[in-house]
Amino acid sequence: MNAFYFCYFPALLHPGWTMAFDALAERELESLLEDKVDKSKDPNPLICAACGERITSIRERVEMNGTHSHTFTNPHGFTFDIGCFRSAPGCKPLGEATQAWTWFRGYAWRMAVCGGCGAHLGWGYEPAPADADARGFFGLILDRLSRTA
Q: What CATH superfamily classification does 45-146 receive?
């Protein structure tokens, strides 16, 4: 071995270090493969129409009050067509949850924005008061999502 290996690969200096670096590299590789597998399992991602950030997936669709999609008008007169999703990892909920003007009885809401660009994508809903049997969900504005970049 030449000096290059010892400068850039100090693990070669001590056999115990080599095992530690091998274990670290293996965990990183497994993590990268899991990320790739997760993405390949989801041929239908939904992305932010403004910036292309991955928000959720078609497979995360859920029905609330008997249907996935709803049309609601807020107190300011703005009408939204939303779809319900069990999770939206690309969304960032903002503010304190409130039950004021909620569109889903028994749920408090918070605004949800794109984690990439901050565009308003909808609302995160959580059971209120906390109900052990109920699960939270996201109501996302359908025309602010896209299936392709």
A: Peptide methionine sulfoxide reductase. (2.170.150.20)
